[in-house]
Amino acid sequence: MAVRPSCIPQHRAALPLLLCAVFANFLIGCSRINAPVNDPSGIHLIGNIPVDAHNIVHIDTRKPIPFADHAFGAMCYDTYGCKVLYDGRYAANFPDDVKRISSESLGDGYPGNLKANTIGIRNFPHFPPPAEVTWRSKDGQSHHATVDLEAIFKDKVILHHAPQEQLPPILQADISPDIILEVNNRTINVYMKAMVQTRATEARKSVQRFP
């Protein structure tokens, strides 16, 4: 079962600008953040998060933005008996004899409605084992898939489209993104969304999908 990652900016009527992360292949050419051994500023790593000499988060936004934990959620559309098991718990566990609504029926509310409810899942140094997904598509056919987030987000950094001039030069708090696994009839999509304060006066509103 192929997994198609996507990116879903969500409108907020405030300053934060949503960052979007997608399939790990987009990380080609990006290096991991590594502090020089003799860095006079005292910048060093705790796990994969840069901190200063006082152990305050110090993420240089000119470099890839790392994340060490995430929230997870699962959403199911046009399916029967959709079940998603991740990190030892069911993020989705729906009855076998009731069809879930279609995403099309939500109109403009989709995909902005996708959300992650389970917070604080560690992904450094490794994500939990792959998610196990079982369901029947709307035609009644049974499906099974495993979704390996370690492979999808192997570099554990957030990809985004925010112009550098709109980002603060340094983040003093790390970002814990939402990762959402969507089962939609016969297709699995993986989304990530996160927010960071920007210099922009308005949040962007857009929906982007990556092939």
Write structural notes for this entry.
The structure is a single chain. With 211 residues, the chain is mostly beta strands. It has one domain (44-210). 2% of the residues lie in helices and 38% in strands. It has one helix and 16 strands. The protein has one helix spanning 149-152; strands spanning 3-7, 17-21, 44-46, 49-51, 59-60, 65-66, 69-77, 79-86, 89-93, 118-122, 131-137, 142-147, 157-158, 170-171, 178-184, 187-196. Strands 1, 2, 7, 10, 15 and 16 form a six-stranded mixed β-sheet that branches. It has a four-stranded antiparallel β-sheet with strand order 9-8-11-12, with no helix packed on it. It has a two-stranded antiparallel sheet with strand order 3-4. The longest helix is centred in the last third of the chain and has 4 residues, at 149-152. Residues 6-38 and 201-211 have low confidence and may be disordered.
